[in-house]
Amino acid sequence: MSDILIVDDERDIRELIGDILEDEGFSTRRVGTSDACIAALSDQLPALMILDIWLKDSDMDGIDILSKVKRETPEVPVVIISGHGNVEIAVAAIKQGAYDFIEKPFNIDQLLVVIRRAMETSRLRRENSELRRAEATPTELVGSSPAFRSFRAQLDKVTRSNGRVMLMGAPGAGKETAARYIHRNSPRAGAAFVTMNCAAIEAERLEAALFGRESEGQQVEPGLLEQADEGTLYLDEVADLSPETQGKLLRVLVDQRFQRVGGSAQINVDARIISATARDLKREIAAGRFREELYHRLNVVPIHVPALEERRSDIPELALHFIELFHQAEGLPARELSEDAAALIQTMSWPGNVRQLRNMIERILILGQDRGAIEPGELPGPDGAMGAGSEEERLILSNAIAHLPLREARELFEREYLLTQINRFGGNISRTANFVGMERSALHRKLKSLGVVTSAKTGARIAALIDEGEP
Ligand SMILES: Nc1ncnc2c1ncn2[C@@H]1O[C@H](COP(=O)(O)OP(=O)(O)OP(=O)(O)O)[C@@H](O)[C@H]1O
């Protein structure tokens, strides 16, 4: 049954609204002050709140309560009751996130219509966001470059064990995605995957968040560790834990059990811990910012998550994957990637890694053409590109290539040189070939042999061929 919290300082109005709603099959809780309202909210979140703007004998008025609710639990829809002549305030409340307002004196039908609509909208919004979350979480890890395959092989190995894993990699490289992959393919897949962002949590709240809370006569609030029982707890950005919270976490890892805040019983849980960091923890330890013992406890199996620059040939395949994802989930146009665009995106710099690529694709699909292949002109300009070949840079590179005796080093420079030139010519293979004095087909072959994919569709196949050709 849907629970509605009614907040009004006038008893008659509270009781009237409450009785009407109960007749309609809703359950209600009724309070007259801001303190009672806050207590009711922390006791249990309602499905909807009806809130009077003016509250006598209260520390907070309706607008203060509204902003607290929208900040802390935005999923609870709030319908404002305003007195006659307070419409301006009610409109301001809507701007702050209230769903709608009803003006006193109101008629019952109008009240019921607003409430039913608010409930329906909030249900749809909840379903949509759950759907989106499910769709935004890839069911597979996309990538077939040698670097990515060796990374995936390491993940596959640890899925079978139960050991703690530390994922180290640049922002947006796919650490959480990798952690979810491990969980989903492990014997723990049937239980929860719970995440805690260590950078976002304050030291005072960590204990309650991690261990939960209980008090006499009140409900027990299980913490993240308990929620992850038999499943996996993902600790994101562990390097950002304050020294104090590092100590607390270490204690749990050592003792393997804990007490809820306010409770006395020892609780044992079986949660696998996977942690992640974008920072160099050894350096953090040397600088005295991270506890070495915690590092060793968490870092049982270290896995490096390769940045996009270490696996450029995966970029077109990932771009196509995101086009398909946004097409399926959001109805955005299902476009192709032109050969030139596929070449160009491999030369760009991607400090935000897969997330940046994903955002770029989303932006292009929203703002760009409705159909046809994505062309280099739709990609971000030189600012988003790798050092786009100044004349001086080109000379340095070609001199280096001309004088380098070692084949491997020569290939490396050649690759960088060719990438720079493709970038400079906006991904246009013909113009690049012309400039570097090669036939177009020869340039294609050369790029393939250097691990640069010139066709998005065949990208995976080519990467596989290159991989097989490697020692
Ligand atoms: N191999 C992959 N295949 C498909 N999608 C991926 C892959 N790796 C990452 N993504 C997508 O890229 C985005 C960023 O990935 P994720 O959140 O896992 O990165 P992260 O390294 O945990 O980021 P942060 O450093 O900010 O915590 C997500 O939308 C994720 O779905």
From TrEMBL:
Transmembrane regions listed in the UniProt entry: none
Keyword DNA-binding attributed: yes
Signal peptide positions on this chain: none
Domain annotation Sigma-54 factor interaction: ranges: 141-366
Gene Ontology terms for molecular function: ATP binding; sequence-specific DNA binding
Keywords noted in UniProt: Activator, ATP-binding, DNA-binding, Nucleotide-binding, Phosphoprotein, Transcription, Transcription regulation, Two-component regulatory system
CDD domains: AAA
Function, in words: Required for activation of most nif operons, which are directly involved in nitrogen fixation.
Summary of subunit composition and partner proteins: Interacts with sigma-54.
The protein's name: Nif-specific regulatory protein
